[in-house]
TrEMBL record:
It comes from Streptomyces tuirus. This is DUF2993 domain-containing protein. InterPro entries: DUF2993. It comes from the Bacteria.
Amino acid sequence: MRALRILLIVVVILGGLFVIADRLAVNFAEGEAADRLKTTENLTATPDVSIKGFPFLTQVAGGSLDDIEVGIKDYEAAAGDGSQKIRIDDLRADMKGVEFSGDYSSATASTATGTATIAYDELLKTAKSEPTQVAPGVTANVVGLSDGGNGKIKVTVEATVLGTKLPEPVSVLSSVTVVDGDTVRVKADGLPKFAGVDLAENRVRSITDFQQVIDGLPGGIKLDKVQAAPDGVEITVKGSDVRLAG
């Protein structure tokens, strides 16, 4: 009985040491991965990296990790031709089946899903914010974007008719969708009228409808879905063979 008791104590101690060593190793790995991701994506701040699953050391020995969560507070993605940037807030991605090279210089996830937010003031940069002629004597421009409820965006348009600015802006509810995995499209559900003036649909839509191409998301992930929310449009992203580093 005494020998069994001693054996159990030794097993408990060794198990505790293994857990401590495992947690120290995972903390070190998270820091290294965060630094590598910061460099790879040219981030201004170090991202959050959390390696899930236990034990970590046996996953490393097998050459792959089950689950890694990545959080990037502010990410600047290329917009359109790449000459401009659009800020994406609170990008969080869950990477599954992460395999890495023998020297740990590169890592690739088999799949990734995530969420992020594009603030309305960022998306507004895409809309026509300068007065544009939509008919003889009539100019209009988008002056605001906000939550319209039920997943819609409220697009607020200011107009000038025959040199006189209308006293109140006109608002229209718009649907927001993802096109081709890299474009956020805003399209008015109906057409506004300016002081009762009937305008050609294509002229009005040249103001109310717009889209924003978003390229260069981390690791090559793509836009999946988008929906209007109180603070901006909430996007979901997904991808396969997503590169974390290297």
